[in-house]
Amino acid sequence: MAYLTLHRQKLTENFEFLKGMFEKHDVSWGVVSKLFCGNRKFLKELIQLGVREIHDSRISNLAKIKEINPEVQTVYIKPVSKRNIAKMVMYADVSLNSELNSIRWISEEAVKQGKIHKIIIMVETGDLREGVMGDHLVDFYAQVFDLPNIEIIGLGTNLNCLNGVMPSTDKLIQLSLYKQIIELKFNKKIPWVSAGTSVTIPLMLHQQLPKGINHFRVGETLYFGVDLFEEKVIDGMHGDVFELYAEIIEMQEKPLLPTGVLAANPQGEVLEIDENLYGKSSCRAILDIGLLDIDPKYLIAEDGELEIIGASSDMLVLNLGTNPKGYAVGDTIKFDLKYMGALGVLNSSYIDKVIV
């Protein structure tokens, strides 16, 4: 059976690297756990690192965090649906919001539950996902800051999550200015300016982060050590906290081209024939993992000579060429993963998860 490993020591070293960097810049931060898809073993690993603020996009995952350690501050990081507000207020201490009606409903529910619910107002800065338009922000704040049992603790933004818009010093300065405008107009303090996610870290590394930015929500760089501007692993961090192992369940020499009338496969793909490959063959291996678990484009084979041919729902096919390394049925092939690949594997109940 295919399995995924989490390397505890490498995760620890990545966490300590980020912790030191944020402390140096006097910036607070929380860890985004949505990659773990609620895996209790992995959530415990985060908490054992000393993480005391965890962000997630699934209320059920926040509930598990509260079960493991009620002292961890939990943050719900997407707009909440009306029917889930009661559960969200129950398990999330903080939420990211950009809808007036939703905040009013949260206020009503917080009163019922006898809780103070903290809110970060999300501001649109160009990527066109969630967020209040900047020219509406003052009016928006005026309608929510004195709602009962609601505490506005920050302004935040998301970039690069939908249209690929990258953060910049100018955009983040604008976010800081919004905070100053609101504080002056309403004589209220807003503790956090939450600049964003892992994609903003390179600005800090290159001393380009505006001084007013004092809070981050970090997932991908913690787990993959990646600089998302240059798409490479940051010096001093690890890119292989996660590794995927899949077993060879069949291996035979077969033609490079299929025979028969071609139509679309179940994924809607039609093979384009390269006539130069007629009459040629290679060693092909089938692995015990498929599209139910991961899209092959997010797999990076440790053996760079392997070629991923394609996948069906439960099987992945590799071209081994002449099989110079002598792979055999029963051997495992190791892969590194891109973020979305790890997300798919962690969301799959068919893949074992192991802590190394």
Task: Describe the protein.
The radius of gyration is 24 Å and the shape is elongated. The strands form three sheets. Strands 1, 12, 13, 14, 15, 16, 17 and 18 form an eight-stranded mixed beta sheet that branches. Strands 2-3-4-5-6-7-8-9 form an eight-stranded parallel beta barrel, surrounded by four helices. The chain has two domains: about 10-235, Alanine racemase (TIM Barrel); about 240-355, Elongation Factor Tu (Ef-tu), domain 3 (Beta Barrel), CATH 2.40.30. Strand 3, helix 3 and strand 4 (about 75) form a beta-alpha-beta unit. The protein starts with a strand and ends with a strand. The mean pLDDT is about 95. It is of the alpha/beta class and about 350 residues long. The protein has helices spanning about 10-25, 40-50, 60-70, 85-90, 100-115, 135-145, 170-185, 200-205, 220-225, 340-345; strands at about 5, 30, 55, 75, 95, 115-120, 150-155, 190-195, 215-220, 225, 230-235, 240-255, 280-285, 300, 305-310, 315-320, 330-335, 350-355. It is built from ten helices and 18 strands. Helix 3 runs parallel beside helix 4 (about 85-90) and helix 6 packs across helix 7.
